[in-house]
Amino acid sequence: TPAGKPRIAIVSIAHLSDAERMFFVSLLLNEILGWVRAQPGTTSLRALLYMDEIFGYFPPVANPPSKQPLLTLLKQARAFGFGVMLATQNPVDLDYKGLANAGTWFIGRLQTERDKARLIDGLEGASSGAGKLFDRQQFDRMLSSLQQRVFLMNNVHDDEPEIFESRWALSYLRGPLTKQQIKTLMEPRKNASSAVSSQAGAKMEANTSAKSGARPVLPPQIRESFLPLRSTQPDGAALVYRPALLGCGKVYFRDTKTNTDTAQEVCSIAPLVSGPAPVNFEKAESVDLNIDDLETSPAPNASFSELPSAAAQPKNYDAWKKSFADVLFRTQKIELYRSPSLGEVSRAGESERDFRVRLQQRAREERDAFAETLRKKYAPKIAVLEERLRRAKQAAQREQEQASQSTWQAAMTVGASILGAFMGRKTVSAANIGRAATAARGMGRTWKERSDVARAEETIGAVESQIAELDAQFKAETDALAMRIDPATETFEKTIIRPKKTDITVNMLTLAWAPYWESDSGAEAAWQ
Fold first, then answer.
1. Which of 104, 194, 205, 366 has a C-alpha 20 to 30 A away from that of 27?
2. Backbone dihedral angles phi then psi of residue 74, each to the nearest 5 degrees
3. Which DSSP symbol is given to 509?
4. Is-contact 241 305, C-beta < 8 A?
5. Is 140 exposed, middle or buried (0-12, 13-18, 19+ CB in 10 A)?
6. DSSP 342
């Protein structure tokens, strides 16, 4: 959004009729869609549209004017960093195409089987689009077991859904304010605003003469202008024009290091006083005034303060014009903020807050790009370790099976030799001795197989430790970048850019008559 504009807009249309709501929502969605298409592509979230009570705006069968732009946003806006969040109490009110394009779901307790079936269909479509397997029976059981204030969160990029419980969020706030309530709340502000007097009026009053009379006659070379009358006449006050010099110019600021090339319009008014120094642009006051706002004649029934004699000499205006340009050269400047971590420089006229908000988007993109680089860096190492882990687990399982089989065979051999010894005719025979020797060798193999199982399990533990260490390194590098790039708390460097003398143009220097309302209680500027 442009600098100086609100970053969050909350719109309530509850007081509108159904037709007015549909017109407003459709117009808003089409404007947002046009704005989105004008943005450059990004992988980070730039803005978010949240719509509560979506019923009627995105139906599964009908085709209202709001449906097509909303469906387009759901399908295409993510490529431009724009997210859409929709909320409803009845999932059957949503179009299935939109459900299939939703990547993150927050599902609460459902009242009907129809709602549950529609959600499971949408979840299956979203999972299929992301290339994931979907277990309908598992989701059916999880959705059926949800209690009050317990939600299921499903993200198509995560392996499994998560169940969480929300905090107590009952609000006792009132609904939309009525016109009478708004009037009551704004009444103190209106009274305070009307009681504020003009600061510029006090300055001009201190530096000008209180004498008033007819409009002075000036040489034709001197240009006269009259500031516009913008306030109503107070009771018992008279309109008096006081003399001043009004200078308007354009100041260019150019700097290749910060890529700055901008111009500022400057208008300043300085009171004219009697004495050796009739005008002082060092104490001039900046005014928000356009040259086209000036008037060529005074208001009727007005009187004029005494004009200093120096203001009636045309040659003085050339010297004052040079003095005005010199003051602009010495006083005008623009202050820019620079982010040391990102190397970005603020724009001319951009506040520190707006600059920090703009940097947050850049910081997210930097973090995303760095995280992707880290993933590519660690992916081969993790893949190798995971392959080693898989082989180690297979070897452990094989050794376990061999150990179990060897144990069983040894037990059978020992049992056979014992039975032969007791059941045979001769207690000590060559066959029995052979069986005993075989049983002994079998027990030895059994102990060896068990040692192999232990070594295989140690290998699994070592590989898992290496994978955990790589994960920790990845997280540490990511966290270090997040701490290094934090526009919200970063201390900016300040850069002052001043104009060159050749970049200052004085468009106008004129004798300006400023209107005041004068009364026994004082004077009040009538042109602000």
1. 104
2. -65, -35
3. E
4. yes
5. middle
6. T
Q: What is the pLDDT of residues 114-162, one digit of tens each?
A: 878 877 777 777 777 666 777 778 888 888 888 888 888 888 777 778 8
Q: How far is CA 166 from CA 51, 151, 157, 160, in A?
A: 20, 7, 22, 19
Task: Round to whole Å and give the CA distance between 220 and 223.
Answer: 7
What does the block give as tokens for 491?
């201390």
- 329 near 269, Cβ under 8 Å? no
Tokens linked to 487: 């526009």
**Nearest of 225, 230, 229 to residue 243 by alpha carbon:** 225
CA distance 186 to 182: 6
**Residue 57 identity:** Y
- Are β-strands 212-213 and 162-165 bridged in parallel, bridged antiparallel, or unpaired? unpaired
Tell me which of 228-232, 460-464, 517-521 is least confident. 460-464
Q: Decide: pTM greater than 0.85.
A: no
- Bridge pairing between strands 224-226 and 238-255: unpaired
**Structure confidence by residue, pLDDT tens digits, 220-231:** 888 889 998 888
> How many distinct helices (H) and strands (E) make up the chain?
10, 15
Question: CA–CA separation, 484 vs 358, rounded Å?
Answer: 17
